[in-house]
UniProtKB/TrEMBL annotation:
The lineage of its organism: Bacteria, Bacillati, Actinomycetota, Actinomycetes, Micromonosporales. This is Beta-xylanase. Its EC number is 3.2.1.8. Belongs to the glycosyl hydrolase 10 (cellulase F) family. The keyword Nucleotide-binding does not apply. Residues 18-344 form the GH10 domain. It catalyses: Endohydrolysis of (1->4)-beta-D-xylosidic linkages in xylans. GO terms for biological process: xylan catabolic process. Pfam families: Glyco_hydro_10.
Length: 345
């Protein structure tokens, strides 16, 4: 049988997965490494390139796990999505505590950010295809205030100007890497739900950055969906991608998974084959993939993990418990989502 990557290649599409470095290195779990290498043409670090992983102690960088991923990619003929340079989560404690206790002032914080971006992008120079430069900078309708705004640690401490700065610093450090803004709830446009407003906000942000000559090359749509929210329409997903493309930007799906609540007749280990209620999961993977295939500027389609054996969902969505979010079950049997993606390719 053909791999996802072989099928995607015929469309010029890169198909990817986030990689958990512990699982990749586990000799007792060889199937993880095999599938990560054989089914995908691009990889991204699930955690290894985040600030708290790279610089747990101020001034001391721990490059080894991230370097191992980049080496793995080279051995397997894969491109790398770098994730992530600027985000409000998974920051090292020395940084957040330094700001809280006042030992790091705003001018120093801006220098620290510049130096971090420069050090990381330079370290991987020439080996990263797309960088997620800024991640999740925009609020959601359920945040306070509900009016969409720039949220989180960086906007609060530096103001929204950090976004343009970050792209400029990244470009200077590796002029050939494609620089992305990455976010969730921007997967569709025209559905009439609140995600339309966030998509529009990000669109206006990107338009403004482009108009000012800020070096942004693409917008990444994460694609963390849940079956409890129903299914988007392929045309609405394509419409969101096309709006960004209209600004001269590339697009990508960067973190696709489709979780389900493990309540009311859905339990760990179920798949769409044995529990028809999970067919919505497969359908959502297919919706996003078909929209990406329909838009030439959609460069890559990355899954946020490929097996229920190693997925962030059960750890993060506990009340009610959620899971079953990936394309392979816990024993590496391909699920219906996998078959549907193959059929789409
Ligand atoms: C998640 C990882 O999957 C987890 O292992 C980690 O504990 C928390 O972060 N949006 C992002 C990703 O941009 O970096 C997040 O990854 C999932 C949500």
């Amino acid at each position: 049988a053909q791999s996802l990557r072989a099928l995607a290649q015929r469309h010029g599409l890169y198909i990817g997965t986030a990689v958990d470095m512990d699982a990749l290195a586990d000799p007792a779990d060889p199937r993880y490494r095999e599938l990560a290498g054989s089914e995908f043409s691009t990889v991204t670090a699930e955690n290894a390139m985040k600030w708290e992983s790279l610089e747990p102690t101020r001034g001391t960088y721990n490059w080894a796990p991230a370097d191992q991923l980049v080496d793995f990619a080279r051995q397997h003929g894969q491109r790398v999505r770098g994730h992530v340079l600027v985000w409000h989560n998974q920051l090292p404690a020395w940084l957040t505590e330094g700001v809280t206790d006042g030992s790091i002032d705003k001018a120093e914080l801006r220098r620290i950010l510049r130096d971090h971006i420069t050090a990381v992008v330079r370290h991987f120079k020439g080996r990263i295809w797309q960088w997620d430069v800024v991640n999740e900078a925009v609020s959601d309708p359920w945040d306070t205030p509900s009016t969409l705004h720039y949220k989180g640690f960086w906007a609060e401490n530096l103001g929204p100007g950090y976004i343009a700065d970050a792209f400029r610093w990244a470009r200077a450090a590796d002029p050939k890497a494609l620089l992305f803004y990455n976010d969730y709830n921007i997967e569709a446009f025209g559905s009439g739900n609140p995600a339309d407003d966030k998509t529009q906000f990000v669109y206006e942000m990107a338009r403004d950055l482009r108009a000012r000559g800020v070096p942004i090359d693409g917008v990444g749509s994460q694609g963390h969906l849940g079956t409890q929210y129903g299914n988007y329409d392929t045309l609405q997903v394509a419409a969101a991608l096309r709006r960004f493309a209209g600004l001269g930007l590339a697009t990508a799906f960067t973190e696709v998974d489709v979780r389900s609540q493990l309540t009311a007749g859905v339990q760990a280990g179920d798949s769409a084959e044995i529990n028809p209620r999970l067919q919505a999961s497969a359908a959502n993977f297919s919706t996003l993939l078909r929209a990406c295939l329909a838009e030439r500027h959609c460069l890559s389609f990355t899954l946020w993990g490929f097996t229920d054996r190693h997925s962030w969902v059960p750890d993060w969505f506990e009340n009610p418990p959620e899971g079953l979010a990936t394309a392979y079950d816990e024993n590496y049997r391909p699920k219906r989502a996998y078959q549907e993606m193959k059929a789409d390719l």
